[in-house]
Specification:
single chain; 361 residues; Rossmann fold; six-stranded mixed beta sheet; globular; Threonine dehydratase; TrpB-like_PALP_sf; Ser/Thr_Dehydratase
Length: 361
């Protein structure tokens, strides 16, 4: 947990609306796609600027800080997507930014951060080690630390995903959970409309689920394709929010995640990173008349995708249910009667029998 978050810090639906007003001129709404074979709508945040929803929270945090007169250099720890979002936002606003990324971060994400001019520091083998180093650099140099998820401005920015979903009128929204920033923001935006918010985590990388059940013992997360949600300890602010707003959390097996990612690419032509396919993988266990899964990011290394396509053989999808009942025998009778008009003194049923006898002769 981020120990620097005060217990009196609050974030509300009004903050999400304020974030939407700030971001509207910079970020267009991302599209919705109906994945018919999955029976689920997809919110394509993989098509967002920098390939992830994370740019929403980073940009809102920088804009809100500018409104408050805070022009300090910003530093953040990230497995990749928050770093890219911060780099792009800082570039657009002319702010200095430093990102600390684990050494094992995907090359696609490291290159994306460098492209927008932010300073990249590689440190540690996990997000939590990178976070500790970022906090150390901030204390030494007076930088502002921007959490990837446990910050009210970041949460409000992520919540704008939920506001864009409101027009779809979903009954269930599935959200991947790492530190909990996206799930918290989306829940703030949609919970008042009666929408069920279902979180998704990976087996062995389920710190938020354990924390909400009262187990806050830090555990090293398992290795997973969903590096974007591989968080050892969730946020304190996000825990407080989700304790009241989340309806359920589904834990997905790694094999399910890999298969869903490959099916997304082959059947829906949607390229998602591991965390991006996580919500849809969980959605296969959740019923809903109008459910929507958030594809949170698409920054997947080409080599990883090629390996998955060569190794994973997804099962064939189940045959879809027919939307309309097949025509019954009575519905066919008028057509038969047209071909063989029934004499006025002969019952319709007799004419139908006669046609069948002629056809079988």
């Amino acid at each position: 947990m981020d120990g620097d978050v005060a217990t009196d810090v609050r974030v509300t639906a009004a903050d999400v609306l304020a974030a939407q007003a700030r971001l509207r001129r910079y970020l267009p709404a991302t599209p919705l796609h109906h994945a018919e074979r999955f029976g689920c709508w997809l919110k394509l945040e993989n098509l967002q600027r920098t390939g992830s929803y994370k740019v929403r929270g980073a940009l809102n945090a920088l804009l809100a800080a500018r409104e408050r007169g805070d022009h300090r250099t910003v530093i953040a720890a990230s497995a990749g997507n928050h770093a890219q979002g911060l780099a792009w936002a800082a570039y657009r606003l002319g702010i200095n930014a430093i990102t600390v990324m684990p050494r094992g971060a995907p090359q696609t994400k490291i290159a994306g951060v460098s492209h927008w001019g932010a300073t990249v520091r590689l440190h540690g083998d996990s997000y939590d080690e990178a976070k500790a180093f970022a906090a150390e650099l901030a204390a030494q140099n007076g930088y502002r630390v921007l959490s990837a998820f446990d910050d009210p401005d970041v949460i409000a920015g992520q919540g704008t995903v939920g506001l864009e979903l409101a027009a779809l009128a979903p009954d269930v929204v599935l959200v991947p959970i790492g530190g909990g920033g996206l799930a918290s923001g989306v829940a703030l935006a949609l919970k008042s409309q009666g929408v069920r918010i279902i979180g998704a985590q990976v087996e062995g990388v389920d710190s938020m689920l354990r924390a909400l059940r009262g187990d806050r013992t830090p555990r090293e997360p398992a290795a997973t394709l969903a590096d974007g949600v591989r968080v050892r300890q969730p946020g304190e602010l996000t825990q407080r929010l989700l304790a009241n707003l989340i309806d359920d959390i589904v834990v997905v097996r790694e094999a399910e995640l890999r298969e869903t990612l490959v099916r997304l690419a082959l059947e829906e032509h949607v390229i998602a990173e591991g965390a991006g396919a996580l919500a849809l993988a969980a959605g296969r266990r959740i019923a809903g008349k109008r459910k929507c899964a958030i594809v949170s990011g698409g920054n997947l290394d080409a080599g990883v995708l090629a390996q998955l396509l060569s190794e994973v053989r997804p099962r064939a999808p189940r045959r879809p249910r027919r939307r309309h009942r097949e025509a019954s025998a009575p519905a066919l009778e008028p057509a038969i009667a047209t071909l063989n008009p029934t004499p006025p003194n002969r019952p319709r049923a007799a004419a139908v029998v006669r046609v069948h006898e002629e056809l079988s002769a």
